[in-house]
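=== RUN LOG ===
request id: a7f3
mode: sequence -> structure
chains: 1
length: 260
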Amino acid sequence: MTTSPPENIPPATPRLADTQNPPIRLGLTQWSHNAWQRKFYPKGSQSGERLARYAEVFNTVEGNTTFYASPSPETVLRWHQSTPDNFRFTFKFPRQITHDFQLSNCRDLVSEFIHLLKPLHEKTALWKIQLPSAFGPESLGSLAQFIRALPEHCHAGVEVRHPAFFAKGDAERALNRLLIETQADRIIMDSRPVFRQSPIRQPSLMPSRKNPKFRFMPLRHPILRWFVSSGIRTSKQMMLSLSPGLPKSRPGWLRAKHLI
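=== RESULT ===
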């Protein structure tokens, strides 16, 4: 799967990064990609400068790499130094915690991961718990225990994949009650563009079609992972269709995944 940056941004264009208290935060699922070198990063930018250049335009990013491997302490400090005070990260808990141990018997791993990111705590708005499709209703007790054991400053967001959590039945109601009780957010995937594209024309979309073919909007704190289609007009129409569901008075999160 390949992510695609926006087209060249004219200097006079107002930037999200310049807004101190934005009603919506917009970002991508990564800040570094070799294919962006000519379109997005200034000429001559080095790989180590990419986060700083990214943060000049966007005001949030998903730290997807922490799902696969933990960064070094030096890297964490560099991320902190490369971003302004009003920039916000979302970090995924490592795969070993969410998929291998499925949130159970991993207290030491969780503590080590949170401690590693200590220099970025003030800039981390969401700690993402991305669960596998095998994590079903019978495991909700483990999820509740995991969230309640997190430090107070760690605001959790949960992304589920099990079909029962999208069936509008008892399992989904139980999940939503749990999230309300623990003050955690539910991360929503708007995968409509994925299913509108031809897998023959865009083979890179095939892995994304494993995601649930549903769209939900939470009532209070929208946290949306949005799969953007290759057609600008279609993507704009889908984005505009979401606006009535966004809260007018509460800050929200909007996360866009660009696919080509």
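=== NOTES ===
DSSP finds eight helices and nine strands in the chain.
The CA atoms of residues 131 and 160 lie 5 Å apart.
=== END ===
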